[in-house]
Every structure is written in C-alpha cells, then in structure tokens.
Amino acid sequence: MPADEPIFHPTADTQRSNDTVERDAERGAGGEIHQTPEGGTRLTTAQGAPVSDNQNTLRAGPRGPALLEDFAMREKIFHFDHERIPERVVHARGYGAHGYFEVTDALADITAAHLFQKKGNRVPAFVRFSTVAGNKGSMDLARDVRGFAVKLYTEEGNWDIVGNNIPVFFIQDAMKFPDLVHSVKDEPDRGFPQAQSAHDNFWDFISLMPESMHMVMWQMSDRTIPRSFRFMEGFGVHSFRFVNADGKSTFVKFHWKPKQGLQSVLWDEAVKINGADPDFHRRDLWDAIQTGDYPEWELGVQLFDDEFADRFDFDILDPTKIIPEEEVPLRVVGRLVLDRVVDNFFAETEQVAFCTQNIVPGIDFTNDPLLQGRNFSYLDTQLKRLGGPNFTHIPINAPRCPMHHFQQDGHMQTRGIKGRANYEPNSWAEGGPRADAKGGYRSFPETVEGEKRKLRPESFADHYSQARQFYISQTKVEQGHLADALVFELSKVETVAIRERVVAHLPNIDKDLAQKVAKGLGMEKVPPAHAPAVKPRTDLKPSDPLSILKNGPGSFKGRKLGVLMTDGIDGALLEALTAAIEAEGGMVEKIAPEVGGVTTAGGKKVAADQKIDGAPSVVYDAVAVLATAEGAEKLKGMHPAKCFAADAFAHAKFIALTPEAEALFDAAGVSDRDGGMVTLSGDADAKTFATACRDLRFWDRVAG
Ligand code: HDE
Predict the structure, then answer these.
(1) Which ligand 1 atom is the nearest neighbour of the CA of 130?
(2) Do 678 and 655 touch, CB atoms closer than 8 A?
(3) For labeling, which of 251, 424, 482, 649 is most exposed (least CB within 10 Å)?
(4) Is residue 578 lining ligand 1, measured as CB closer than 6 Å?
(5) Pick the catalytic residue: 164, 201, 358, 508?
(6) Rounded to a whole number, what is the distance in angstroms from the first to the last CA of the chain?
C-alpha cells in the first residue's frame, strides 16, 4: 500500500459493509430468499439465519421443557441481557442532536486550527445536553447544572468542548471531584434522594468548601431550571489556549450564546413539569428540530494575553472565576446549528464519548488544575462505559477525517486493516504513516518551574467577591428566586448545624441575602459569618450578561401557547389567536375537556392536541382560555382546569381569556386582573395578546 493511502477510512468502511449487506439482500436469488412470501423483509438472527417463529421457544412436546438448542431464542435473550452499558457516573441523563458549526469570523492570526482559517468553514457537530446528578431515568427539570457537550468533527480530528450551562465550577482541583459528586448523588446508605441537591450530604460538603460559593449562587439561580436546552448558554469554563502558526499563544474562554434568548421556569413549575412530563426538555428539542425550528448558538470567544492575565483581579487558571464580559468582550466567531435528531438514542446519545483531551492543532490546555484532572478522567471513563479501547470505531465517535495509526487490536476491532506493519519505525515499503513534526499537534512550549508540592495557589483564595458580583447583577425578581431556592434546599436539610454553616457563608456575599435566607429558615438571626481567607471585595460592578431576565429574547419565537377551549366558542377568534401567535414565531397547542376536541359556535369540529388532565399550564409559555358561559361552568367543575388557570396566574404567565372564561379564574381563586391578562373581546385583541407575550412573563405580578 502506498504510504499516502489511508490504511482505513472508518466511516467509509462501515458504510461499505452496510452497503454490502444491502446489496447482497437485493441481489437475484439471494434477494428473493431474504424476503417473506408476502414480500416483506425476513427476520433473521444476528448471524443472518432466517427465523421461522419469533413467538415460541423450541420445546419437546406442546407442554414439555424448552430446548437449549433453540439458538434463535438463546441469542435473543443473550442480547437482551447485555443491552445496557454502565450509565455515566455524572451527566447520566442526557439528550443529543446533530448539526453543524460554521465559522463566521476567521481567526487565522490567532490560531492554527484548520477550522478557523477561513470564514464559512463548516464541520459536522454533535451536541449532548444533560443534567449532572440524576440517573439515566430521572426527570428533566431537576434543579441542576446542565452539561453542554459539543463534539466538532474537524478535518484535523475531533475537537470536544465539554462544557456546562454555568461558566464556573464548584471546586478548584480535580481531586475534589469524587467528593463533590458523592455528596450530591443519592446518599449511599438510603439510595435517595434522586436527582437533587436538596439533602444533607450535599450541603454538608458545600458548607465546608467555601470555594464553591460562586457556583452555588449560579446553582441557586434560575440557570439550573432552564425552560429548554434551546434557551440556555454554554461555557467551556476553563481558560484554554489558541496557538497560531508562529507559535504565539492567546488565552481563550468559550461561550455559546443562544440565538433564542435565555429563559428559565419557576421552581414551582419545574416541580410540576417533572410530574406532567419528565421528558420535557428532550421532547422540546426533538419537536423543535422536527418542525424545522433549528436551535442556534453563537460561539463567542474571550481572547486575552499574558498581560491581561497578570493584571486581572483573579487567577485565570481558577475555574471558580469568570472574566466579566465588560472586561473582555466576546468576539463572535461561529455559529452552531442543530438540525437533525438522532436515528437511534442508544447508538448515538448513549454511546457518544466526549473527552476534554480531544483537541486539535492550534488549541491547547492551560494549567487549570480542574482541566488537567479532567483530561485523565474522560478517557478513563469511556473505557468503563464502552468496554474497550476501540470506542472510536463507533460511528458517533469516529472522526470524519482519515486516521492512520498502528493501534489495531483490542475488543471490538471493526476495521478492515490491511498490510504487515503494525509498528513504527519499520522498513516496509508500505510501512504506513509517519509523524509530521511541523503539521502534527505540538503543545505550547510554556516554561514551567517550581517545587513539586501538593498545594493550592494563594491566587485562588478569594471565594466570595465574584459570588457577590453575580448576586448583585440579578434583577430583583431573580434575587428573590435565588433566596427562595436557598431556603427551599436548606429546608430539606435535616441537620440544623449544616443549615447554619451554609447560611454563615452568605454575609460574606450579601447581607440582605443572608438575612432573607435566615428568616426563610426561621432562624432568629444570621449566624456569625465564616472568616474568609481573603477579604471579599465589594467594588466589583454588576454585569448584565450574568442575568437571565436582562437577556431575554424579547420575542415569543419558539415558545408555546396552550389554548384551553370548550364547545360553542367562536371559531374565528381561535383562528385569529392562532394566526397572531404563529406570526410571532410561536406554536399553539389546543386543549379540551376531551381529546376529541370541541365544536365551535359555527358547528365546526376542532380536534384537541391534549386532554386537560394531561396538559397543565406549566408546560406552556402562555395560556388562553376560550370558553362560553356554559363551557366555563363545565371547566369550573374540573380540578385540572382550575389548576390550569391558577398556576398560569401564579407563574406570571400572560393569559388571554374570553369574558365568559373569567368565571373559571374566579373559581380558581384568581380574583385579580392585571396587565398580563388580556380579555379577548374581538379578533383584534389576539394581536395585542401575542405582542404582550414577547416579554414571556408578566413579572410585575410577582415582583412584590
Ligand atoms: Fe465532567 N465528567 N468532570 N465536568 N462532564 C463526565 O465523562 C469530570 C466537569 C461534563 O454528555 C464524565 O463521559 C471530572 C466540569 C459534561 O457525555 C467523567 C471533573 C465540566 C459531561 C467526568 C469534571 C464538566 C461530563 C462522566 C473535575 C464543565 C457529560 C461520563 C475535574 C466544564 C458529557 C463521561 C456527555 C461527564 C469527569 C468536571 C462537564 C466521569 C473528573 C468542570 C458536560 O469523565
């Protein structure tokens, strides 16, 4: 084989073997014998032998024992017995989708990464969103950090940005990760609680780890109860390096900004969504992509040099710190679009193996101690999950560029390898690939010196200043949610001393917050503050990008209106409302007392998408109740309809209602009428309502 010819090309090879099977199946005599007499595809074993009966095991006599020689039955059960792989120790519950990443601003002067050399360069992408603590079958709306892991199949190898929807982390050193994760997961003796941090072990650990306080502020904010994967940001967290063709290094932080704007739900909604639709987030992503409303994120980079790093108030290697966008503005360099759902959840979403060490020439790590530990952990974990070193052969993990190497054996080797050389150097004429000293991956030659010691640098010691900055950057409504979240979580902690130890961190962040939480927990006073390692700063300015509500979309695009309807309604009004919401880019789902739907005043049958019992208002961004007087009477007698109205009001949603529907709201205990409620007296009101929905929530109702 000539040296420049690929030894194998994985995707092509896999394709070839699939094609061969299909071709064989189609071919002449072979094709015919692979069909049932009715012309359908014939069922076979995994070995290809045709199956005559998929319902009954071979047995000796009609009521006799099963016979072991029934290879088809044995194979079927054997496969089933082995259909699960270990779930991820963290981020077990996740959902993935395919798409592409396109460079919108070349960075050829900053990085040698092939991808960034030209505007318009496009590579395939696979993204997996996840919660962290819950198991694979847990619910989507747990209060939890979300994983935001991106695999870019570049022409020089896979580049994985394994990030979260929060830009900082709980701990500063990878060595603490097992402790952190053990503390948040279900407690080891009782095996609960599932998918939540509201328990003693988590807060016990946190109370003893002041470095976690910045992340705790983010975790207790609405960031951890996103409305959808589509409406959250992603962050690479660590500082990385870009290295250009001349070997010059620039530090970089990665930010994914959703074009759809940021949005979260309220905690009470999250709790109820978990019951109504535990798959709320995955269904949302699936539906959006299937309807052609492709979610999109911009990739923003914060670029800075050594000089900035030296003068920055905090250590850029410390993953518990951000660099405010006011200090280093984002430069938007690309866009990520998700436009294809997976064909098979297990093969793709479950088997995808993200690894922080998957980088490409032009990109490098920094000495962030968390990142360094991760670079060990991810490869290691894939071995456990996927069972062998050849997990890169699985199509979702296989690079889309040629690979040439000498790693041939091992579990599940699937490639058609040819030739004699499996070592290097060798002297065979077709001896295979050789390293490329110039074009191959080279680490940035950073000078490193120092004593070999186990220590935490002094420059990592300030644990409260940015926690405070985050808190003061929130709107009043958001600050209220954050305080409520702390009160909720700590109320679930049984040990009073742990509650107190957590609250004692808060005066170092914000005195009002400390007081609110202490009061919410029924404490007589705020416990004495822990002595901080260094004095917290109070001069850091609020930063708007840290708030969700200051970064809403100002649009109802991609959001959903739930319309509860009864018999006898004005069909034209329903149509006007639907048209107005669709003109805003929103979707409409119709709900009725019976899923068969309703009949309008004009005698037209309108099918419902949902029966009221299965469509609480928490699964919608805004609601409308179109009812006649008689219809409202009927709804008043239905508990789910009353909850629909009461919850929509309590969750600050925009509500459209016919004058007759007022009776339902009264019966649901909603006697107030405010600017977030629009009475639909005529078709023109539908437009007014749809325009109001752009604000997503009527916060004045709950601002206090
Ligand atoms: Fe992870 N993390 N992590 N992590 N992480 C895993 O890898 C680990 C950390 C993140 O959708 C595991 O394949 C260590 C920070 C995401 O498949 C494991 C440390 C951030 C995902 C692992 C961290 C993340 C993981 C479990 C501390 C945000 C899901 C299964 C040093 C920047 C990827 C797996 C997916 C998954 C280890 C901290 C994000 C065990 C040791 C910080 C999004 O390898």
Answers:
(1) 11
(2) yes
(3) 424
(4) no
(5) 164
(6) 76
Q: In DSSP terms, which residues pair with 125 in a beta bridge?
A: 99, 152
Q: Given the structure tokens 């089933």, which residue do they identify?
A: 80
* Pick from 376, 131, 375, 146: nearest CA to 238: 375
Q: Please tell me the residue having the least CA distance from ligand 1 atom 29.
A: 91
Ligand 1 centroid to residue 377 C-alpha, Å? 8
Centroid of ligand 1 to alpha carbon of 95 (angstroms): 15
Q: To which residue do tokens 């050594």 refer?
A: 306
In terms of Cβ atoms closer than 10 Å to its own Cβ (0-12, 13-18, 19+), residue 129 is buried
Report residue 47 CA to chain centroid gap.
Answer: 38
- DSSP labels for 120-175? T-EEEEEEEEEESSS-TTS-TT-S--EEEEEEEEETTEEEEEEEESSSS-S-SSGG
Map tokens 């009101």 to a residue.
685
Does any ligand 1 atom lie closer than 6 A to the CB of residue 377?
yes
pLDDT tens-digit readout, 569-600:
999 999 999 999 999 999 999 999 999 999 99
In 3D, which of 119, 142, 118, 121 has the Cα closest to residue 130?
A: 142
Q: Which two tokens stand for residue 348?
A: 């793709």
Q: Are 225 and 192 in contact (CB under 8 A)?
A: no
Residue 114 catalytic?
no
Per DSSP, the three-state class of 340 is strand
91 is catalytic: yes
Three-class SS state of 620: coil
Rounded to whole angstroms, how far apart are CA atoms 110 and 102?
A: 17
CA–CA distance, 72 with 263 (Å, rounded to integer): 51
Give dist(CA 147, CA 407) in Å, integer: 31
Ligand 1 atom nearest to 382, measured from its CA = 13
Confidence of residue 15 (pLDDT cuts 50, 70, 90): very low
Closest C-alpha to ligand 1, atom 32: 163
Report the C-alpha gap between 377 and 372 in whole angstroms: 9
Domains and CATH numbers, the chain: 12-56 (no CATH), 71-397 (2.40.180.10), 465-549 (1.20.1370.20), 556-701 (3.40.50.880)
**pLDDT tens digit string along 103-125?**
999 999 999 999 999 999 999 99
pTM for the structure as a whole: 0.95
